[in-house]
Amino acid sequence: MTTQEIAARLTALCKEGKYEQAQKELYSADAKSIEPAHSQGLQTVVGLENIIKKGDMFQSMVEEMHGGYVSDALVGGNHISLAMGMDVTMKGMGRSKMDEIVVYEVKDGKIVKEEFFY
Predict the structure, then answer these.
(1) Which of 53, 66, 69 is nearest to 20 (CA)?
(2) Which candidate, 22, 30, 82, 104, has a CA 20 to 30 Å from the CA of 4?
(3) Cβ(114)–Cβ(31) under 8 Å?
(4) Is this structure's pTM higher than 0.85?
């Protein structure tokens, strides 16, 4: 797949809330997921299996999802960026709105890196 094709599929799946399906379809087995230094509870991980576990861990911290959004993708060379946000109540932390930019790197037809900025 080209970077543009990956961007279109990634955006479609994320807008449907199918993040794990996107990871299984589009990520390389040794992909890396990078969180900012100030992230609470989530860590940078390597490997698709660990990325899926990290997503499961995040979901386990959610008490209630009130809404969210995923932007259309911007593609530049072998990079894709999406703006994402959610209105969520986290367990023991109350309700908050979160906004982030995610930058994906594509190599050999697969996502090899995702990096979150928030």
Answers:
(1) 53
(2) 30
(3) yes
(4) yes
